[in-house]
Amino acid sequence: MERSGKDFRRNLALFITAATATFGFIALLQVLPMPWFVIALVAMHGGIVLFIVSKRRFKKTGFEVSRFYTAQYLMLLPYVLIMLYAFATRAGIVPAFAEVKVVVTLVYTVLCAVFTTVNCLRMKKELERQYIIITENDAKAGRLVVSS
Fold first, then answer.
1. At what angle do helices 36-60 and 5-29 cross, to 10 degrees?
2. Rounded to an integer, what distance in angstroms lies between the CA atom of residue 86 and that of residue 29?
3. For the chain, what is the mean pLDDT?
4. Could you tell me which of 84, 91, 96, 130 has the fewest CB atoms within 10 Å of its CB?
5. pTM, whole model, 2 decimals?
6. Cα(55)–Cα(63) distance, rounded to whole angstroms?
7. Residue 25, exposed/middle/buried by CB under 10 A (0-12, 13-18, 19+)?
8. Alpha-carbon dihedral of residues 69, 14, 7, 67, nearest 10 degrees?
9. pLDDT band at 1 (very low <50, low <70, confident <90, very high)
10. Is 117 strand, coil or helix?
11. How many CB atoms lie within 10 A of CB 38?
């Protein structure tokens, strides 16, 4: 398989874009009124599609990155709980603490930004390691190796 250092750099950039879009818009979902809520919801799902596309591209070029995607997906779960709380307050099931919800959302979003940055840095380091191994194996097998 022909590959270059650009393969993982492009896919890493796509992963970072996906994370930024997904977490940015899911945070906005917590505070936006209609019809902006719907627009942010569509944009957030666009970020999820970018996650899927980038993961497939990584797999196609032979890179193993599943654990980095799993970390990102797990960080999305608390947002689902926050959204369920918002729906429950609108339905009158639980009391509304709007200020607390906004603060919790903002604090969690900052934590996600930090963890996503760390995850991306670790992913870049791992991709560089895998790229060296893959190109060495390709060279040993006599395959064409395209450098960056």
1. 160
2. 10
3. 87
4. 91
5. 0.82
6. 9
7. buried
8. -10
9. very low
10. helix
11. 11
